[in-house]
Every structure is written in structure tokens, then in C-alpha cells.
Fold this protein.
Amino acid sequence: MLTVSALTRLHISVSFELKDGECIALQGPSGVGKSLLLRAIADLDPNEGAVKLDETLREAVPAPLWRKQVTYLAAEPGWWVDTVQEHFTAWDDAMPLIARLGLPPDCGSWPIRRLSTGEKQRLGLARALMLRSRVLLLDEPTSALDATSTATVESIIAERISSGTAVIWSTHDNAQARRVGSRLFVMGAGRIEEHRL
Amino acid sequence: MSYIQLAYSDLLLPALLVVMDGVLSLVLQLKLERQLAIAAVRMVVQLVLVGYVLTFLFAAVSPFWTALAAFIMVIFASREIVVRQRRPLLGIWTYGLGAGCTLLAAGTVTVFSLLTQLHPEPWYHPRYALPLLGMILGNTMTGVSLGLDVLTNGLVRERAAAESYLALGGTRYQALLPVIRDALRSGFMPTINGMAAIGLVSLPGMMTGQILAGVEPVDAVKYQLLIMFLIAGGTGLGTLAAVIGGGRLLTDHRHRLRLDRIASETPG
């Protein structure tokens, strides 16, 4: 279980609990701070408040270990070497997932600069899923995808949720929020409000 | 050893060449005449002053005055480093990092050469210490400022890449390594290029100076080689310290990228 108490970052201040196998859909207008909140939970920006995974405070573990368990995935994931494959620690193990996301088997040698936004988004998701984190913080993970790919992503994440992964999924798509979320949070003016699904 | 001494009056004729440049600028409307005049006057005043200051220092041979002169040189070098940054660091580190690393590297290398190769008496004799420090400082300064400039701009440009690496559980060193490599390469490049081209494209100023002063060319070459080795060492040390230190300052103990510690881009 992820426990967030009085997490404060700029104008945002929130508290909530997220159980294993639960998915919170996070909605709210652009610029309200959804990304800031997700980044703060992953400890990617300076912030205050207590965040615990089970009973362990996040400050009790080194930040890299925390992020391997509580993983933030940006809407536009970044790339630090030239080809796709070099960004994966175990490319062969990732193949089934990558194939399922609709990418050809030879995409490992593709140069990053030739990827479309949608390809980058799917590969970024695959890369993050390979960590098998306890908590996934997904920042509009299907914003650049067509309906088919979106459905695939939703079903892959649903499987992870049913095997115990906890997810916060930020989305602008009301229908998607209702499809993927077991709870719905709406963010406004730095607070979150739980709505009934 | 003998050399041809110049009187100030001997410089009048060559100075006319600068005046010629000014006339060219006026005729061709390059609008450089003002800048040219200021630069020329600054050069004359600065050099003449330095001549008198060095005369005083060489007569005094005092550790205090020598250290003070060295300190002032480092201050000017660190100011130059900051001016060359498109995105300087904020707070005390604006000057601190560049000054600290330049002082550390150039100082270490200068003292090293004084104590192990040149053995002047006393070891801090300003006739040896200050010219050596000046040459090493100038080159170290270039390496440090290039390295820091590439580091800060690289991190701003590659922010998404570094943050993705961090979000996936990478350490700050792993996440910054690609940019740190670029920054170190940029810092080292001028020294490597300088070493490769020296003697073929240009005769270094110090060697030329010694030759004009009557030193045998082969002896002047030895001095120049010493200087080049010292420069390579100083630039390497200084750039490494500045880039690693900059990388540490732009991240924190929770392995977060802290680009809020960089000033926004200065125009021009």
C-alpha cells in the first residue's frame, strides 16, 4: 500500500492511500499539477510530506531504489543513447511485451530520432514495465496513441493491476478514466477530490 | 644572451597600423572604430601597468605580494568564466565553482612545476611563479568555462533523457554521464588541438619571446614543452573538477535533477 500524507509541492497539498491492485484515475484541467503530483510521489522534485510504501518511509531507502518500486512514466519519455535496444537492460526479455504493443521485432536497432511520438510512448511504457514496479505513476500514457494501441495498453496495465500492481493513471479522457480506474480523483486548485465512478 | 631593447618611441610607427585599421573601419562603415579605440587604449594601459607591477614584484620577492597578485589573476579568470556562460549557476556558485576549480588546478600544477622542475630560489619567486600561473590559468579557464557551458546547456537540452533515467531508478551519476562526457570532451578539445597544431601552424608566444630574447631555439622548445605539459595537466584537472562539481551541484542527495539552480539563458 502507498500512503501519501500531506505531500506538498508548490501549490499542491494532498493526502490519500493507494492499495495494491488498485487504480486511481487522475483527472483535472491542464496545468492543475497532475504531473507535478506524480513527479513528487516519485521524489523527482523537491517536496515535503510523508510518502510510505507499506510501512517504509521513502527517505529510508535510496532514491534510485524508491523509483524502481514507485515508477513515474512521463507522457513524453526521454532517451539518452542512439538506439532503442540500448535503453533496455534485458532486451530479449522485453520482446514479448514489445511485440504485444504492436512494434516489429527488429525495432531494437532503430535510431531514436526516427521514432514517431506514438512509438516513443509505447517503447517508454515497455521500458518502465520491465522494472516490475510495485506502483506505476502513468502520466497520460496513451496521449499519442490510436484507439487500437490505447486498448492494448489498457489491457496490459489491467493485467498488472490484477496481479497486484498499484497504479495512478492521469488522463484527459473521461471515458478512459472510467474504464481503467477503480477510483477517480479530480484535481483542482492544488487539492484532490475523490469522485464516485 | 642579448636582445634588442625597444624604446617607447619605437612603438609609435607600429601603432599607426592600428590607426590604419580604424581608418578602414571608418571608410567601410564597419562601425568598429569605437570598439577598436577602447580595446587599443585598454591594451596599452593594462600592459604598461602590468610591466610596472611586475617590476615591483620582482624587486620585492615577497610571498605576500606574489600571493596577492596570483589571487587577483584568479579573480579575473573566474569573472571571465562566468561571462562566457550562457546559463551561469545561481548563488555563491556562480563564481565559486569556476574560481575554486581554476585555482585548485592551476595552483597545483604551478606549484608542482616550481618545486620539481624549475627550483627557483625562493620557490615562489614571482619571475617564475606568475608567468607560469598566468599561462596555465588562461588555458585552464578556457577548459573550465567550455566544460561548464556544455554541462549546463546539455542538461537543459537533455532534461527529458536525464529525468527518464532517474525515474527508472538510475543514480544521478548514471543519468548525467552522457552530458558529463560531452562537457569533458569540449573542455579538453582546445588543449588537444593546441598540442597537435603547435609548431606547424603557430609558434607559441612564450617560445617566440624567449627566442627574441636570445635563448637558443632548442632550449626555448624545452621550456615550451614544459609549459604545454603543465597546461594539459591543469586543464584536465580543472575541467574534470568543474564538470563533476557542476554535476553534483545540479543534482541533489535524493538523485533529483535541480535545474532550478541554473540562471535562465542570458541573451547574446
